[in-house]
């Protein structure tokens, strides 16, 4: 039972470029740019390029914290 719980917590959520772009409400080209500049990792399964949605969430959280840091306080 314990091993099943550990395995379940490590399940990756995969998405194509299009699905990842829809997930974060941006253009697929933006995801491609993040793959090219090394911000996100690219995973291949045959001809398909996949993105780990957990990594994408981490990148989005990091960029949100950077924005909050530089936003002027009112």
Overall morphology = elongated
Number of domains: 1
User: How far apart lie the N and C ends?
Assistant: 52 Å
Q: Round the Cα radius of gyration to an integer and report it.
A: 15 Å
Q: Main beta sheet, described?
A: 3 strands, antiparallel
Helix content: 55-70%
The oligomeric state of the chains shown is single chain
Q: Residue-averaged pLDDT, rounded?
A: 84
Number of strands: 3
User: What structural category arises from helix and sheet content?
Assistant: alpha+beta
Q: Approximately what portion of the residues adopt beta-strand conformation? A: 5-15%
In order across it, which strands form the biggest sheet? 1-3-2
Strand and helix order: HEHHEEH
**Count of helical segments?**
4
Low-confidence stretches: none
Structural notes for this entry:
The protein has 74 residues and is an alpha+beta fold. Strands 1-3-2 form a three-stranded antiparallel beta sheet. β2 and β3 form a beta hairpin. The termini are far apart.
């Amino acid at each position: 039972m314990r091993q099943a719980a550990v395995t379940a917590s490590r399940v990756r959520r995969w998405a194509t470029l299009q699905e990842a772009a829809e997930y974060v409400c941006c253009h697929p080209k933006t995801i491609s740019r993040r793959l090219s500049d090394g911000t996100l990792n690219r995973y291949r399964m045959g001809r398909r390029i996949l993105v780990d949605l957990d990594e994408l969430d981490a990148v989005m959280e990091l960029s949100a914290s950077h924005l909050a840091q530089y936003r002027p306080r009112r």
